[in-house]
Amino acid sequence: MIDNIVLLIPSLNPDKKLIRTVEGMIAAGFTKILVVNDGSNSFHRWPFEEIAGFGEVTCIGYEENKGKGHALKYGFKYILENYDNVAGVLTADGDGQHMPADCINVANEMLAKNECVFGCRDFSDPSVPRRNKMGNKISIFAYNFLCEIKMSDTQTGLRAIPVRYLKEFIDVEGERFEYETNTLIYMKNHDMPFNEVKIDTVYESDSNEGSHFRVVEDSIRIYKPLIKAGGPRFLLFTLGSLLATLIDLAIFTVLTHLIARTSEEFLAIIASVFIATYTARFFSALFDYYFSLKFVFNKNKNLKKGGLLRYFVLMLAQAGVSAALVAVICFIFGITGVVRTAIKIVIDTCLFFVGYRIQREWVFK
């Protein structure tokens, strides 16, 4: 039995799945189960009345629906005020998607590590619907690219939280689905470590029937905090890169025009492209480095020695890839003149996103 863990289940308009979920958790050994009624209507109150008869279950709630985030924080407050000798809280959904055995494993991992643990689904499982796989890939990219949060399942509701974090998590902004995103951003900003535990991926044929997730509205709620947290830095990086690009393209265009105006021989093409690329990139990179240093990554005082060297290593690698691709494409298709610049723009745009990640995680880290 897990006597020092409170299992917290927020629920809105539940059906018999909530009863089955609670029964399974009791059978698995949970002795403290707190269910929050997030303003369910009168037609869906009977499951709360039934589980309230179980000795291991406490049901609390309010009349008006206020959102999953509010329900979680409401539960956290209740736990701090009414439970003694609690090591942590395990949040789970009441729709049967979290297996009791997985809940036990996540809770035990939290007790062993004394840090947050997330139960993460395996989206490589063939049973996972294609749209869920795609949604998870997009979510992983957004979390990592914008906020440097690396998780394999960013939307999991199975989360084990040490009790020492509850007061902080109560103060995290958000009342609905965005709250769970905000907690991840908060953890990242405050260097709170976490672990992942793989859990079973459960998708029933009627799994969406009881879902209260509104695809458009709630997706906006989830991604808005990410954009708010990581967007300004990325926009500044984009601005600096655009200014540097203007410098780069101007020098590149002039030099390729002067060095090899009409030659169609491969060696002449590649020589002119490489000379023009590296010369242009040298001057534009100096501007880009100091712009990023001062305005984007804010490391002008604390950056360790070697930042400029790392930046130019990256610049040389990117320039080499860019020049090689431009030269090969221009040779194969017989492209000359300013059209080369257009080809370079397409290639450098792709390299731009790669460069941002490398600068953030290596050059200016």
Describe this structure in words.
The radius of gyration is 27 Å and the shape is elongated. By secondary structure, the protein is α/β, with parallel strands linked by helices. It has helices spanning 16-28, 46-51, 68-82, 100-113, 130-147, 166-170, 178-189, 215-259, 266-296, 307-333, 339-363, and strands spanning 5-11, 33-38, 57-62, 88-91, 116-121, 159-162, 194-199. 35% of the residues are buried. The model is unreliable at 206-210 (pLDDT under 50).
Lay out the secondary structure:
Blueprint: E1 5-11, H1 16-28, E2 33-38, H2 46-51, E3 57-62, H3 68-82, E4 88-91, H4 100-113, E5 116-121, H5 130-147, E6 159-162, H6 166-170, H7 178-189, E7 194-199, H8 215-259, H9 266-296, H10 307-333, H11 339-363
Parallel strand pairs: 1-2, 1-4, 2-3, 5-7
Antiparallel strand pairs: 4-6, 5-6
Helix pairs in contact: 1-4, 5-8, 7-8, 8-9, 8-11, 9-10, 10-11
Keywords:
single chain; 365 residues; alpha/beta; 7 strands; 11% strand
| Unreliable residue stretches | 206-210
The overall strand count is: 7
Largest sheet: number of strands, sense, barrel closure: 7 strands, mixed
- Rounded to the nearest angstrom, the distance between the terminal CA atoms is 44 Å
Shape: elongated
Task: Return Rg in Å.
Answer: 27 Å
Which class best fits the helix and strand makeup? Answer: alpha/beta
SSE sequence, one letter per element: EHEHEHEHEHEHHEHHHH
Number of helices: 11
Brief rundown of the structure:
The chain has 365 residues and is α/β, with parallel strands linked by helices.
